[in-house]
Design a protein that fits this description.
Helix content is 37%, strand content 17%. With 557 residues, it is an alpha/beta fold. It folds into 3 domains: 11-296, Aldolase class I (TIM Barrel), CATH 3.20.20; 353-401, no CATH class; 410-549, Double Stranded RNA Binding Domain (2-Layer Sandwich), CATH 3.30.160. The strands form 3 sheets. Strands 1-2-3-4-5-6-7-8 form an 8-stranded parallel beta barrel, surrounded by 8 helices. Strands 14-13-12-15 form a 4-stranded mixed sheet. Helix 5 (123-138) runs parallel beside helix 6 (156-168), helix 8 packs across helix 9 (249-258) and helix 16 (447-458) packs parallel to helix 17 (503-521). The structure holds acetyl coenzyme *A, 3-methyl-2-oxobutanoic acid and magnesium ion. Its cofactor is Mn(2+).
Length: 557
């Protein structure tokens, strides 16, 4: 067996901003990516895959800005994806240039099915391209990662050959992607072992793995890969990503953390060693999860491992009894280890700006002066309605203020009348991008439906509402309600998110946010008129099928 060059530590490569963003509706703008990248650096990831620089001018700008702002000497490596094509590699190299430590990640498919149908190339051709493009990437940076796309459906003998040639050409990390989420733990472990045993120059590269969760095995596959020599794990926050998503960072990191004594020997450490297996500051996990969920609009299911709302909640009497006697009877990790803390400072209507700013900083939010002032006004409004403001309320407010959706349409007013004897009617008042004030009213099957129909009459963008979900972020009748919606326009999905104690206001704001994203993506499209849609508008009312209500609905007026 070959000796590996790597340390006894697992490198965490975060692809939330690249593969994570590849899930429908999770599109992030440049500023939002920057906010997430800063938090990923606080979380302690070793590598941030900031995007696919060649894919679009926006992606290029995001990678470049992240390289400049987050890719400092003591910060993470900043990486851009690139196909095994010169133009892609040139774009990646230019975008990561401002980073103190930059990486080009180039890839090509190696499975028969991809070669035959997608690339339409022979094995010999792909072998030559891989070698040539790794060498080309190496001419820009020392740190080159090479991936064999669809590795888990590739003939292993061919895979060994491609990897050997890529390493010889200068790849310092070789990544084995389970692109279609097809492999199983023992099979994946055997593949990694096969690579260690059969690629002659494997001692010159780190073995990395990239997983997808199509059959729910992504984390299990990674853990088996670690046991067999993988030392870099590619994952995304909350497991977001193409199709069923990527391997969830928080799950694999906490598995290694909680069971470190089990994994220690596989990394050549003494069983009892308490030294962390990764550089991740686990106390930043919860905060990062919430930030990514809020900015992408991808909700976290309540029973999700590690970061779900119920992950540390005990409901049944026997469990509660055990936990009260000794927490360890039913808890394998401490809620504080992922950053869920008791609120130490009680914020309420008498609190000032300093306490507010300080608490937001502790929660990981760095707001600009303007954002802080707006958030403070909302905080005071909320404090007038609620006795005590929790961290979750603060997060909802801060996330709302830092969301970087371009405000093309501004919601000035929303008013509804409804009741068991009334036809739900809504009046809305919006300011369009030209600064004109537009008002309209509509009747709907319920108050939210009426509001959305009224907004549709003002904003002339055909769309289909495909998801509407409401979550109560805090407990009690005075809770903040978070609304997340997803709408589709020409096969693209846009999400919108807003929080308010008035669920109707949050619903209206979330819809306007999503429409602003949609509208932003269409800017320059001459066929669109600005505002005031009539017959060209598709009905996008909330239908029974499209409504997903999670948690309790709070309607406090
Ligand atoms: C498994 C993954 O996650 S891979 C990354 C997936 N992410 C993305 O695709 C998001 C960004 N992608 C894009 O913006 C676009 O697809 C672009 C800009 C990269 C390319 O756009 P287009 O030039 O219009 O090509 P299109 O997307 O239609 O097809 C992909 C082309 O790349 C080729 N290709 C795919 N992978 C590779 C690769 N690794 N190396 C070289 N060529 C490749 C395909 O064979 C196809 O070539 P063809 O047009 O000669 O048949
Ligand atoms: C680009 C590669 C690493 C990828 O995302 C995959 O194969 O899933
Ligand atoms: Mg992938």
């Amino acid at each position: 067996m070959n000796k590996q060059p790597q340390t006894d530590r697992i490198i965490i490569f975060d692809t939330t901003l690249r593969d994570g963003e590849q899930c429908p509706g999770a599109t992030l703008n440049v500023d939002e990516k920057l906010v997430i990248a800063r938090q990923l650096a606080r979380l302690g990831v070793d590598v941030i895959e900031a995007g696919f620089a060649f894919a679009s001018p926006g992606d290029f700008e995001a990678v470049e800005k992240i390289a400049k702002a987050v890719g400092t000497e003591d910060g993470p490596v900043i990486c851009s994806l690139a196909r095994a094509i010169k133009a892609d590699i040139q774009a990646a190299a230019a975008a990561i240039k401002p980073a103190a430590k930059g990486r080009i990640h180039t890839f090509i498919s190696t499975s028969d099915i991809h070669l035959e149908y997608q690339l339409k190339k022979s094995k010999a051709e792909v072998l030559a391209i891989a070698e040539e493009m790794v060498a080309y990437a190496k001419s820009f940076v020392d740190d080159v990662e090479f991936s064999t796309m669809d590795a888990t459906r590739t003939d292993p003998e061919y895979l060994y050959q491609v990897l050997e040639r890529a390493i010889a050409a200068g790849a310092t990390t070789i990544n084995i992607p389970d692109t279609v989420g097809y492999t199983t733990p023992s099979e994946f472990g055997a593949l990694i072992k096969g690579i260690k045993d059969n690629v002659p120059n494997i001692d010159q590269a780190i073995i990395s793995v990239h997983g997808h969760n199509d059959i729910g095995l992504a984390v299990a596959n990674f853990l088996e890969a670690v046991k067999n020599g993988a030392r870099q794990l590619e994952c995304a926050i909350n497991g977001i990503g193409e199709r069923a998503g990527n391997t969830a960072l928080e799950e694999v990191v906490m598995a290694l953390h909680v069971r470190r004594q089990y994994y220690n020997p596989f990394l050549g450490r003494p069983v009892e060693s308490e030294a962390p297996l990764t550089n991740i500051d686990t106390r930043q996990i919860y905060k990062t999860s919430r930030l990514v969920s809020n900015l992408t609009g991808m909700l976290v299911q309540p029973n999700k491992a590690i970061v779900g709302a119920n992950a540390f909640a005990h409901e049944s009497g026997i469990h509660q009894d055990g936990v009260l006697k000794n927490r360890l009877t039913y808890e394998i990790m401490d809620a504080q280890s992922i950053g869920l803390t008791e609120n130490q400072i009680v914020l309420g209507k008498h609190s000032g700006r300093n306490a507010f700013r300080t608490r937001l900083r502790e929660l990981g939010f760095e707001l600009s002066e303007t954002e802080l002032n707006k958030a403070f006004i909302r905080f005071k409004e909320l404090a007038d309605k609620k006795k005590e403001i929790s961290d979750w309320d603060l997060e909802a407010i801060a996330n709302d203020e830092t969301q970087q959706t371009p405000e093309l349409f501004h919601l000035e007013l929303v008013q509804v009348s409804c009741g068991n004897q009334a036809r739900p009617t809504a009046t809305v008042y919006l300011r369009n991008p030209a600064g004109e004030e537009l008002m309209d009213a509509a009747i709907g099957t319920g108050p939210v439906d009426a509001v959305y129909k009224a907004i549709n009459r003002v904003v002339n963008v055909p769309n289909e509402l495909i998801e509407f979900s409401v979550q109560s972020v805090t407990k009690g009748i005075d809770a903040m309600g978070e609304v997340t919606i997803r709408l589709r326009h020409n096969h693209r999905v846009f999400s919108g998110h807003a929080a308010n104690t008035d669920i109707i206001v949050a619903s209206a704001q979330a819809y306007v946010n999503a429409l602003n994203r949609l509208y932003g993506s269409l800017q320059g499209d001459q066929t669109l008129r600005i505002g005031r849609g009539e017959s060209s508008m598709n009905e996008s009312g909330v239908t029974e099928e499209s409504v997903v209500v999670q948690g309790s609905m709070v309607n406090q007026q």
